[in-house]
Amino acid sequence: MKKTILLCAMAIAVLGAQAQGKESQPKRGTFSFTPQVGVTWAKQTNVAAYKATEAAGFSATGYEPDARYNAGFTGGLEVAYQATTDWAFSLGLFYTQAGSKYKDFEEKIFAEGQQRPALVTGHAFTNQHHTFGYITVPIMAHYYVAQGFAVKAGVELGFLTTAKRKWDQTEFTVNNETNVTTYGKPQSCEMDLKDEAKSVMLALPVGVSYEYEQVVLDARYHFPLTKAMETIDTRNRLFTLTVGYRF
Asked: What DSSP character marks residue 229?
């Protein structure tokens, strides 16, 4: 671990030395265009609220949803104006995925009045995740604290394009006399959540970026200000990491 940290520190020092004297941010009074692609890490808050709705697909008795971060895609274009040496302002247009993945669970089905039947049937739910697709429009202010290195903050509107729940469902039988569980063939399932999701979201993105020879590495966290669902107070926690090339 110490060797890894030392190598990273040396690499940053070398890049910093090489960047001296080279253009590593736009010139004052100019416009620039930066196409970007990257990944998202998203998780929804307050997932226990999903217990109250069949639409979200979490109706199993005794099941408590456990949301985890899910990787997704983001990509788009940012247009920036370098107002001064230190300040720039930008407008972007991106496609961004949010949502969550969830812990696997099994639901056993008992006949009414039965305590411990010889055979118990049920369903196993695996690989389940929510994927929300948005067209996002971030308006950002960028402050350059050093050559090529900027901190940034702004406001972002998101317009919903898709909202789906996907999972694999497998029927199983438990023989309580032999303690043998037999699983059937998994089935891929999908549920459309667009009617239950909010069509517009609002967020406050904050982050940092580093530019070297017109290649821009950008990391942001998007603070959610609005709900992801119409009737459930759950929100999208979202991190994005992109790489772009400035023209």
From this structure: B
Distance CA 11, CA 122 (A): 54
Three-state secondary-structure class, residue 68: strand
Buried-exposed string 184-200: b where 16+ CB fall within 10 A, e elsewhere: eeeeeeeeebeebbbee
**CA 222, chain centre distance (Å):** 10
Q: How many helices (H) and strands (E) does the chain have?
A: 1, 12
Q: Estimate the share of the chain in helix, then strand, then coil, as percent rounded to the nearest 5.
A: 10, 60, 30
Identify the CATH class of 2-245: mainly beta
Alpha helix stretches (DSSP H) within 88-221: none
| The residue to which tokens 């992109």 are assigned | 242
Q: Residue holding tokens 């438990």?
A: 174
Q: What pLDDT shows up at residue 110?
A: 58
Q: Which two tokens stand for residue 245?
A: 């090339």
Query: What is the three-class DSSP state of 1?
Result: coil
- H helical segments located in the chain: 2-19
Give the model confidence (pLDDT) of 28-66 as tens digits. 999 999 999 999 999 988 766 555 444 444 554 545 567
Q: Partners of 207 in the beta sheet? A: 152, 220
**C-alpha gyration radius of the chain:** 24
- Phi/psi at 58 (5° precision): -115, 75
Q: What average pLDDT does range 175-187 have in this prediction?
A: 83
pLDDT in tens, 232-243: 888 999 999 999
**What are the angstrom distances between the C-alpha of 203 and each of 136, 138, 139, 225, 227?**
10, 9, 11, 5, 10
C-alpha 203, offset from chain centre: 13
